[in-house]
Each structure stands twice: as structure tokens, then as C-alpha cells.
Write a structure and sequence with these properties.
alpha+beta; Kinesin; two-stranded parallel ribbon; 5 helices; 9 strands
Length: 182
């Protein structure tokens, strides 16, 4: 998990992403700093004859509408992917109300480098794995198919196949002269 290098690793982090405001939408959340957001009541909001007061909420990290998918991936997912590749368990999930941007954050879209966390994660995983094709031997099986073997399997097969024996025989070599060639 990203953050202070000297701090012990946390088993859980909670981050907040503030979605861009839509047209004709009143803002009800304000970014205080990179860890705090403030909920602001909509104008003229009254609930049970009680006015809503501003509330402050603390997170491990807060992203605003200007943070890119890349920023969020580097901060929230990259360490998880490294742990996963090194054999450790990792879990990342999104939680929120319908229409809050969970699918966009996770999947994104291919336009303008807006790939989400999932495609970026898969890209890092597949680029981090050794190229398995370099370690395989493709052998035709005679039926328009191929058998794929590891290098070790191919080497064992080569060692167990008996080599044909050739006998060396003497050849008689004669010189014949041809006369009258036209």
C-alpha cells in the first residue's frame, strides 16, 4: 500500500474518489485536503425540521475530480499487483451508491487513456510474467496440429529417441572415358 515508507503496512485502506459534478448539479461535497472531505448540505435542505450541518470525514486518501485513472491506479492498485505477483493475497473493491462511478473507476474506457483499474492491473500482470512462448517447443504431430512441449519435455524426448545407425560401406569408384561425344 502506498504511503509513508517507514509506516507499518495497513491491512485495510479506505479511499474516496469525488466524481466530477454533472451539469445542473449542486455540489454537496468539498475536498478539504488529500485525506479529508466535508459534506455540505444542499441549499434549503431540511430533514425532520432539522437543518443538516456540515460534517467532516477522514480517509486514507481522497481523489478529486482532477485525478486521473492513472493516478488512482498508481496510488491504489500498483502495490496490490506487486504483492500478487510476489505470491501474496490482495483484494481491491469499490463500494458506493448507484451511479457514483464505481464501474468507471474499475473498467474505465479506452478513450483518452481512461482505462480503469482492472485493465491496468491485467496489463501489469501479463507484462510481468515471463514469456512462456520462449520456453515452449512446438512440434507438428502430422495431423495439421501441433504438440506443445516444455523445453525439458522436448530434451527428454530427444534423449530417448534412438538415433538411426548408418553403416559405412566402401564404394567402388571407376573412371570411364567416353569417346565420340557430340
Amino acid at each position: 500500500m502506498a504511503g509513508n515508507e517507514n509506516a507499518p503496512p495497513k491491512s485495510l485502506e479506505v479511499v474516496c474518489r469525488i466524481a466530477p459534478k454533472k451539469e445542473n448539479e449542486e455540489t454537496c461535497i468539498s475536498l478539504v485536503d488529500d485525506r479529508y472531505v466535508k459534506l455540505i448540505p444542499p441549499t434549503n435542505y431540511i430533514r425532520n425540521n432539522d437543518t443538516f450541518i456540515e460534517k467532516l470525514f477522514k480517509f486514507d486518501c481522497v481523489f478529486d475530480e482532477n485525478d486521473t485513472q492513472r493516478d488512482i491506479f498508481r496510488r491504489c492498485s500498483l502495490d496490490f499487483v506487486e504483492n500478487l505477483i510476489n505470491g501474496n493475497d490482495s483484494l481491491l473493491f469499490t463500494y458506493g451508491v448507484t451511479g457514483s462511478g464505481k464501474t468507471f473507476t474499475m473498467a474505465g474506457n479506452a478513450e483518452n487513456d481512461n482505462s480503469g483499474l482492472l485493465p491496468r492491473t491485467l496489463d501489469v500482470i501479463f507484462r510481468s510474467l515471463p514469456n512462456i512462448m520462449e520456453k515452449c517447443v512446438f512440434k507438428p504431430n502430422g495431423r495439421n496440429n501441433f504438440i506443445i512441449q516444455t523445453e525439458e519435455q522436448a530434451m527428454l524426448e530427444r534423449q530417448t529417441i534412438p538415433l538411426p545407425t548408418y553403416s559405412i560401406t566402401k564404394r567402388l569408384v571407376e573412371t570411364i572415358a567416353v569417346n565420340k561425344i557430340t
